[in-house]
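I hope you will forgive my troubling you with a question about protein structure. The matter concerns a single protein, recorded as an amino acid sequence and a row of backbone structure tokens. Please examine both parts with care and let me know of anything in them that strikes you as inconsistent. Thank you for your consideration; the sequence and its tokens are set out here:
***
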Amino acid sequence: MGKTMIGGYIKMKKMKLLFISLLITALLGACGTSKKEQNTGDDKEKTETIDEGNNKQGNDEEETETVEQTENESGEETKDGPEKVRLLEKNLTYQENGKTEEETAFLKKSDNQDYSLYVLADYELTGEEPQKDVLYLKEADALFMRIELLPANANLNDEVETIKSQLESVSSDIKETKPQGHEWLKNATGVTAENGNERVSAYLIPQKDWLLKLTIFTPAKEDAEDPFLKMAETIED
């Protein structure tokens, strides 16, 4: 074999090896790209799956918080009830010395006890001593009503005996009384005593949260008790 033929054979063999190397490199590159794209797609799907899971978890937490908030609000309303709002003024109709009067009364809150009531313009509410208030006529403070909120579980019989003892200082002639036109006093216990100058009436009215005790002082010859009772009817906590 001549040198020329040998040289040609070697050259062809080198070119064949080079072609095979390039082909293998191309195939490896294509496989790598495909695998990378596949991995990228898988990673994207995984990311989307995680995001969906996070979003779902977030939504579930929001829904849980909403449910808990609703339950809390519902529980508070059930337990305490909605806060009651009273108007600042109210018209009251009452009888005085045989005449029917109608006037505007204004909401007043006791500084001494836990209640409010509507007070006519000619009257004033003030604290007398702890757990006792006085509502009096401004132009004649001898006309007044003492307001006491006794515990709801106070013994009614004992309290009746107490007010009878108090009225003995006015007169030994103590009578039961039940004013007309006051439906709210239908379950009340009332007693009254008077002498030539003064009349004192006392009422014990069972309420939901307390036993309301009213003691009204008026001149014996005047019919001035009804305005006090109409204002007392508006007492609320």
